[in-house]
Amino acid sequence: MQHRYISRRNFIYRTAGLVLTLWAGRSLAQGWVPGMSLEIAFEFVAPTSTSYRRPYIAVWIENAQGLMVRTLALWFQQSSKGTRWLPDLRRWYRSGSLENTTSGPTRPPGRYTLVWDGKDDKGNPLPQGEYYVCVELVREHGPYELFREKFAFGATPFNRSFSPGSDLKEVKLTYAKQS
Q1: Is the CA virtual torsion 52, 143, 139, 115 positive or negative?
Q2: Alpha carbons 18 and 118: distance in angstroms, whole number
Q3: What is the model's pLDDT at position 98?
Q4: CA nearest neighbour of 89 among 100, 79, 77
Q5: Rounded to two decimals, what is the model's pTM?
Q6: Which of 119, 125, 138, 156 is the right S-S partner for 88, CB 3.0 to 4.6 Å?
Q7: pLDDT tens-digit profile of 81-116?
Q8: Which helix (H) or strand (E) holds 18?
Q9: Burial of 46 by CB count in 10 Å (0-12 exposed, 13-18 middle, 19+ buried)?
Q10: What is the mean pLDDT of residues 66-86?
Q11: Are the C-beta atoms of residues 138 and 68 closer than 8 Å to each other?
Q12: What is the pLDDT of residue 86?
């Protein structure tokens, strides 16, 4: 059995290298730009059929790896019967949790706006970088729709509109200084 000897100088060099590496990595990962926010405006419509049930809707943010970092809204029928249909929000349900989620009842068709301040579900600020914006809509005897777009959030503002599907008519994303 051989003992490996590490000299004091070697130990100091390795420790200093580790500290510098950690410090450099931390300074490269810039935090969310203060005063910036992402406004998510979306509109959903009712079909022309007579038997219409309000959709369940989840809106959330995922990191670049596709892991949920913040649920912005979860709208569903808040009863014992209503929670049994939550798994129909397939993507949100796989990674979501009601524990840290602010939810509300289903909403009538119309235009709604949510704002993300760059924080996770626990209120911690997230670094600048690539994230996914997700809007999932499901309706009993109706369509399932998932809007999921990747964006890079940094210092540059942007404004983009999408027309994703049948019930989910429009999604508009505006990243700018809060007014």
Answers
A1: negative
A2: 29
A3: 63
A4: 77
A5: 0.79
A6: 138
A7: 777 788 889 999 888 666 656 667 788 889 999 999
A8: helix 8-28
A9: middle
A10: 85
A11: no
A12: 84
